């Protein structure tokens, strides 16, 4: 067997393509492609055969468990239809929980919503969940008794199934928001229910309090097969979202290991489990829903290193083979115990969507087992050194890869393949930067796998593209770029000839949703009309616009003309990056300077990173001013200018000129680099500013001067800073204080970068 060093080399240099095929062949039906094929066949059947349960809404637990499995498949399948199906379901449901929002059963659907949010970061996907859970936190149950009164009769988790339904939804909402109230509620109530229903001797859960004294025909205690399957799968899904640094994590892991050992002893010779765990002879029917949950949990435990591989992997393989044996040729999963039916008597061809959900969850971990076994993955550990939650933050790691290898990133806690981007920072060179995004609790460290795409032997999920950039020759040499939050453009030489506009300032395009808009804007040419989703309501003119710079002599700002040449570095899905070159211009005192400026924007960001390199024959330092255009403003219009010299940020909450909402802009320079904040027309008093304000045009009030952050600049040395904007009608920032808080948190992230360690 290869040692760790040679494993690392094999992956990084992509030299094992034929070896992967031969090793995977030894896995037979546990090779990645056969596993994925049967999962997709089962999912395809289920998508065209809705639940047969009567009076069970699409927001109820029956469908929600199927959704959990479908989301697991969407995380590994190369076919986007499963992800699209879940999006369509969420839209149809209006992202609502079930009717009884306090019931665990009706909270289960929130798991899929939160997972979709973590993919798309669209607030509407979790707004109703937050409202429902916040209401429950504000009005906790008055009766703390866990005695079972019937499902849905209490907001407490009084039956073991509820540990699958509710806690993972609460914890996924924590992952989506960083709000520790959801985390604390889930953990506290998990242990309250566990202390009540868990049998310390048998390491199993009673279904509810009505089973405490019941006995099976053989005299043993009654422990429901699928009920403990709910708990085992719930444990997995809790630990997937529980921070690695949480003090209760060892306790959860120990409970999982204790239960796993017991469950292993209950597996039957055919590989499945029966409806009664301790009296299987009296319940002879195969049962695939509980068996699916056990297969999922045991496979996850092996993949996490929590369970001994030599002991548990054979059981997983045997169970998976038995589950696949219960799939009809058309993809129907059979032997699913119906809701509330006699577990001793049900039809062999019985099925239900929650059984499919369990099967797909199991398949997702078996798939990961098949992928990782022969792949010798590289591990990347990412640590959040700060005391605050980091959401959707980009990890950048350097790799040197020869050949045409394509690297794939897989989440360590689930089987989900993460959107990633592998590119070179220089055109024409081999890729050397790997990007992906993470969510991390305070002081948390997470591990991710990096695997050569050849190991999958199947297509991987298409990325969700959240950034874009391109040269726009059809609009006078614009260069445009965007993230899923904001868009910009900057002007080329052709605009001078066409309109006489000389400006190297950046324009702002605002939008309400997370879609990409640049191509639509240019296609429709309706730049300045508020169509309800996006528009251009920002005037640049000859100002610095949003984040332009110039040479500052203390009295005058010397600025470049429009950009001359462009170079596209990369476009999406996570980062878009390009470079512009500016001809030499007069910087005062008979000095000429020229500039090369690189722009990059990441998914989820309102800020663009700019790296400027200014060249000059005179090598003495320069003072530069990075600016924000200040607009004319009537005295009755609200505006706010705020800054922090130490942290290096300046923000301007512009006055609303027409009923189109407010655009805010900001710049962020390196910490400690700002020498002063000023403007390029200090003689303009407030009285002058507010007098004779012209009527706004279709683009609003004109700029009248530029607010500047002044810093010193070394010639021929790259200097990096950020600029960006937001729109109060997007719903993300509705007042200036929220926008300023975003700048403060962005600066804190800059000051405490993620710590990335590449291992093997």
Descriptive key words:
about 750 residues, alpha+beta, Glycosyltransferase, Beta-galactosidase, Chain A, domain 5, eight-stranded antiparallel β-sheet, 19 helices, disordered N terminus
Give a brief outline of the structure:
This protein is α+β, with helices and mostly antiparallel strands and 760 residues long. Helix content is 32%, strand content 22%.
Explain this structure to me?
The protein is elongated, with a radius of gyration of 29 Å. Helix content is 32%, strand content 22%. The protein has 760 residues and is of the alpha+beta class.
Helix content: 25-40%
Largest sheet: 8 strands, antiparallel
Structural class: alpha+beta
Overall number of structural domains: 2
Total of DSSP H or I helical runs spanning 4+ residues: 19
Straight-line N-to-C gap: 15 Å
CATH topology descriptor of the largest domain? Glycosyltransferase
Total number of strands: 28
Q: What is the gyration radius calculated from CA atoms?
A: 29 Å
Biggest sheet, spatial arrangement of strands = 17-18-19-20-27-24-23-22
Query: So, CATH architecture of the largest domain?
Result: Alpha/alpha barrel
Residue ranges: pLDDT <50 for 5 or more in a row?
Answer: 1-28
**Mean pLDDT score, rounded?**
93
Strand content: 15-25%
Kindly provide the name of the CATH class of the largest domain.
Mainly Alpha
Backbone shape: elongated
């Amino acid at each position: 067997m290869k040692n760790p060093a040679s494993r690392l080399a094999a992956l990084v240099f992509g030299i094992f393509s034929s070896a992967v095929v031969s090793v995977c062949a030894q896995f037979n039906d546990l090779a990645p492609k056969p596993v994925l094929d049967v999962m997709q066949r089962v999912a395809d059947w289920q998508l065209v055969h809705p639940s047969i349960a009567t009076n069970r809404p699409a927001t109820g637990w029956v469908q929600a468990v199927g959704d959990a499995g479908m989301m697991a498949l969407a995380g590994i399948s190369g076919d986007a239809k499963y992800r699209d199906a879940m999006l369509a379901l969420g839209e149809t449901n209006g992202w609502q929980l079930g009717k009884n929002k306090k019931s665990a059963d009706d909270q289960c659907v929130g798991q899929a919503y939160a997972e979709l949010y973590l993919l798309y970061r669209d607030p509407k996907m979790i707004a109703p969940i937050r409202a429902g859970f916040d209401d429950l936190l504000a009005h906790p149950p008055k009766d703390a008794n866990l005695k079972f009164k019937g499902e849905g009769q209490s907001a407490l988790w009084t039956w073991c199934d509820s540990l699958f339904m509710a806690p993972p939804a609460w914890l996924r909402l924590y992952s989506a928001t960083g709000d520790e109230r959801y985390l604390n509620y889930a953990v506290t109530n998990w242990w309250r229910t566990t202390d009540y229903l868990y049998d310390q001797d048998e390491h199993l859960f009673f279904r509810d309090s009505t089973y405490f004294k019941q006995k099976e025909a053989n005299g043993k205690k009654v422990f429901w097969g699928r009920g403990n399957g709910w708990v085992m799968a719930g444990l997995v899904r809790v630990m997937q979202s529980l921070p690695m640094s949480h003090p209760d994590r060892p306790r959860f892991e120990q409970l999982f290991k204790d239960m796993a050992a017991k469950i292993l002893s209950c597996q039957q010779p055919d590989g499945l489990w029966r409806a009664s765990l301790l009296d299987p002879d009296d319940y002879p029917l195969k049962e695939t829903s509980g068996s699916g949950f056990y297969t999922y949990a045991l496979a996850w435990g092996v993949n996490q290193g929590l369970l001994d591989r030599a002991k548990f992997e054979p059981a997983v393989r045997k169970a998976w083979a038995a589950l696949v044996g219960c799939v009809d040729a058309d993809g129907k999963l059979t032997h699913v115990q119906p809701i509330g039916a006699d577990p001793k008597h049900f039809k062999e061809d019985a099925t239900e969507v929650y059984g499919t959900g369990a099967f797909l969850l199991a398949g997702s971990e078996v798939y990961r087992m098949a992928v990782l076994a022969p792949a010798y993955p590289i591990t990347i550990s990412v640590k959040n050194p700060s005391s605050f939650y980091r959401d959707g933050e980009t990890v950048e790691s350097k790799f040197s890869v020869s050949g045409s290898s394509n690297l794939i990133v897989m989440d360590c806690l689930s089987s989900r393949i993460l959107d990633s981007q592998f590119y070179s920072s220089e055109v024409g060179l081999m890729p050397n930067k790997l990007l992906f995004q993470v969510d991390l609790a305070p002081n948390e460290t997470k591990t991710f796998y990096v695997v050569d795409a050849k190991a999958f032997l199947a297509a991987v999920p298409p990325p969700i593209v959240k950034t874009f950039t391109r040269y726009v020759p059809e609009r006078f040499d614009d260069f445009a770029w965007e993230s899923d939050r904001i868009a910009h453009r900057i002007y080329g030489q052709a605009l001078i000839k066409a309109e006489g506009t000389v400006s190297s300032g950046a324009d702002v395009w605002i939008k309400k949703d997370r879609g990409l808009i640049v191509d639509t804007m240019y296609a429709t040419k309706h730049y300045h009309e508020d169509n309800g989703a996006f528009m251009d309501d920002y005037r640049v003119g000859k100002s610095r616009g949003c984040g332009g710079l110039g040479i500052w002599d203390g009295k005058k700002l010397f600025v470049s003309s429009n950009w001359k040449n462009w170079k596209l570095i990369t476009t999406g899905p996570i980062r878009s990056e390009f470079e512009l070159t500016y001809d030499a211009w007069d910087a005062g005192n008979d000095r000429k300077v020229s500039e090369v400026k690189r722009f990059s924007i990441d998914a989820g960001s309102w800020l663009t990173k700019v790296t400027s390199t200014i060249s000059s024959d005179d090598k003495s330092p320069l003072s530069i001013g990075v600016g924000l255009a200040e607009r004319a403003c009537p005295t009755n219009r609200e505006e706010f200018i705020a800054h922090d010299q130490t942290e290096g940020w300046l923000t301007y909450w512009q006055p609303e000129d027409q009923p189109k909402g407010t655009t805010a802009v900001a710049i962020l320079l390196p910490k400690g680099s700002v020498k002063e904040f000023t403007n390029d027309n200090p003689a303009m008093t407030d009285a002058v500013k507010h007098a004779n304000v012209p009527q706004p045009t279709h683009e609003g009030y004109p700029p009248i001067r530029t607010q500047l952050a002044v810093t010193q600049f070394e010639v021929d040395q790259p200097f990096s800073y950020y600029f960006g904007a937001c729109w109060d009608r997007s719903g993300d920032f509705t007042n200036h204080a929220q926008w300023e808080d975003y700048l403060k948190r962005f600066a804190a992230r800059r000051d405490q970068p993620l710590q990335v360690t590449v291992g093997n």
